[in-house]
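Morning F.,

Quick status update on the modeling queue. The single chain you submitted on Monday has been processed. Sequence for confirmation:
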Amino acid sequence: MDIFVRKESLEQILAKLVALHGFSKNAVTKSHFIRDTTKTKGCRMPKCEKTVAVLLKKHAGQLKEDMSLKLIEMTQRGARFRISLDEWALTKTRWFLNINLHGEESFFNLGMVPVHGSLPADKVEELVRKKFKVKESDIAASISGGASVMVRYGKTSSSKHQLCNAHGLNGQF
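Structure tokens below.
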């Protein structure tokens, strides 16, 4: 019966505690309950926040690598993707571009790409291709907010582009 039970790694457990359940790295390292529970699963919880951070980065790197391999496999089979883009400003000087990739059978959140400096339309396309390493021909369509840079991106992109009407509604009220 043990062959049907998949054992989670310490990295997977830490990722769930931090990302899904909202525990801080400090809370994870200080909680006796978490330490005892992970011990019963055969894992030894680190006592140092830096070690937790290293394990989380290692896990994130593995997930990114797995996603890249899956995307390469899908493009080799001839899959085309749709992307949804949204720019987001934390402050006037800190910008991010959120990129989601939609395939026939799966969805990938590629995350928030930091934008350094200005964000002209050609840089949007470069960030998109750089983030998930596909050719322009692999992108069938895109959807984005109505910011002027996204409008320009849609006009210069070789794929179909749709502006999201919901973004336009936000400024109307």
